[in-house]
Amino acid sequence: MVSKELTILSDDGLHMRPAGELADAMGKYNCDVTIDYDGSSIDAKSIIQIMAACIKGRSKILIRCDGKDEEQALKEALKILD
Amino acid sequence: MLKGIGSSEGYGIGKVLIVKEQSLYFVPRSDCDPERELERYKKAVDEFCNKTKQVAEHLKEAVGEQEAGIINSHIVMIKDPYMNEEIEKLIQAGHCAESALASVCHKFSNMFSSAKDELTKQRAVDVHDIKNTVLSILLGAEETDISSAPENTILVAKDLTPSMTACINKDNISGIITETGGRTSHSAIIARAMEIPAVLSVENITGILSNGDTVIVNGSDGVIIQSPNEEQIEEYAKKRVDFIEERKALYEFVGRETTTADGIKLELLGNIRNTHDAVNVIECDGEGIGLFRTEFLFMGRSSAPDEEEQFEEYKRAAIIMKNKPVIIRTLDVGGDKAIPYLKIKKEDNYFLGCRGVRYCLKNKSMYKKQLRAIIRASAFGDVRILLPLVTSVDEVRQVRKMIQKIMDELSQKGVAYNKNLKVGVMMETSAACLVADLLAKEADFFSIGTNDLTQYIMCADRGNADVAYLCSTYNPAVIRSIKYIIECGKNAGIPVGMCGEAASDKYMIPLLISFGLDEFSVNGSSVLYTRKVISQWTKSQADEVAKLVSEADTEQEIVRILKENANKT
């Protein structure tokens, strides 16, 4: 498993467009991608779970990728969220 | 005449085409063949994705990347593994595709609408749109074909779905009327981007009008005229042509600096009620926010917004404006503004009562929350504070003291804010005007509110028809007051702005230029117009007009002088 902590830079938080982009991209990987935020674990392949989590701007999240192509998945997730 | 919300300016005349709402009725069944239903569902989703991609492409061209991005995320949503899992589970249990889709969407839509966060709440609408579109594919429901609508068609619908708007040919559609939505709804954004006049939220309009009816859509005032007579048609046809020509002429001013004909640079800001308006100010090319009327955040609800909610709203405005000025006027309420939970006492004379900064200083715990929220938001942009209805130096000092105390508290806690936060004074009472020189030493800037200033200088209630003739900015008393306030500001070296209607009045503008006003704050829709009028005057031409006006004795004479000279430029 690989993981990385990061801060959401967008002041509006992780909303529909970035959430959609992330879920869409992560769906292509053969590994589990999880976001830990505010005490809960969110499936990053699900736009609905990401949005329902209401991840606020400037908050810290932990991204975990676990599986075959975990390295690439983490790399792309960070690219989208940066 | 029917009223609604004017959501896209302009005038349209044409024949009604009612876009029928599709019947999405189905009989829920729970004895289906899972394999067959799953295949039906997958096929419908594929079709949905193809359709949505087309809509997104169209929106990208017609409106912009952002709208297209939102529609694109509908595709991600329908493919959501979590959602699909739930739907498949129901289908496997024998439910038909329609009822599996409807019940899962219903669940998610409820989940979003119960979220605390405003933006997340709005996503419920997206889930609803997705559900309806996929349902209509599953049911093979027929959509009214908008793309082949003849010239001069007025579209009338309960609501315009994204797929409908994608079929609009803007050369043929001369107006849009819907039963739901407001200025920030999807339909409104599309209508404005396509420059089609639109009036939204007209109750039961699909029942009132019939196909082929002639109607006039007045998107500027939010009004529909049913079966207009020939005179009205002629009147509005002319209005329409003038509007289109004027809009074209104003386009030249997009992206330009606001300068007089001889190159004096002025500031041109927008007045807003909430962050939606802030987006509109950007759309209209405003250079910042000159007046954020925060009382609108307090209206239409049962308790005051807390510090956190206010902070989020002010912060969002600051972020939207990206380091351009955001002048936030603190709560300006009085007996005339109905906000029951504020428990403002009934007063015989509420214009002379406990309102503006007086009310704020009497209700310090609430005021403190607002000031804290604004001060915290100052870390995110060029946020400034503006105090309403000031009459004395003492009021400004009291508020400054509160602000200093809040700043000290925030510093101790390590919360970020702008230490050089500017505090300005609304110049809108006779008392403030008479002590403008003293106030100029206390304030970082002035903002002249001409509507209240006129009423208080002329001693005439704006709402009283019998004295309405006195409520004119062109009165010598009002003009002298404005001139004096600007002079006092200049002498003290602080900028002076104006946020009343006079700031976008083509007759007043030369006087304001001559007096040396630094900043004009107008409604979003008047930004380009004001920039154009300012660009037509040189300082010396404006001075000439001001000189003539200073020699006039009456309001009528001043109006005559201003009108004559406005037509010369």
CATH first level of chain A: Alpha Beta
At CATH level 3, the topology of chain A is: Histidine-containing Protein, Chain: A
What is the number of independent domains of chain B? 3
Largest sheet of chain A: 4 strands, antiparallel
E-strand count of chain A: 4
Distance between the termini of chain A: 21 Å
| Overall average pLDDT of chain A | 89
Lateral strand order in the biggest sheet of chain A: 1-4-2-3
Placed side by side, the strands forming the largest sheet of chain B appear as 1-8-7-3-4-5-6-2
**Name of the top-level CATH class of the largest domain in chain B:** Alpha Beta
User: How would you characterize the largest beta sheet of chain B?
Assistant: 8 strands, mixed
Detail the poorly predicted runs of chain B: none
Pattern of helices and strands of chain A: EHEEHEH
What level of helicity do the residues of chain B show? 40-55%
Structural class of chain B: alpha/beta
Shape call of chain A: globular
Range of strand content of chain A? 25-35%
Radius of gyration of chain B: 27 Å
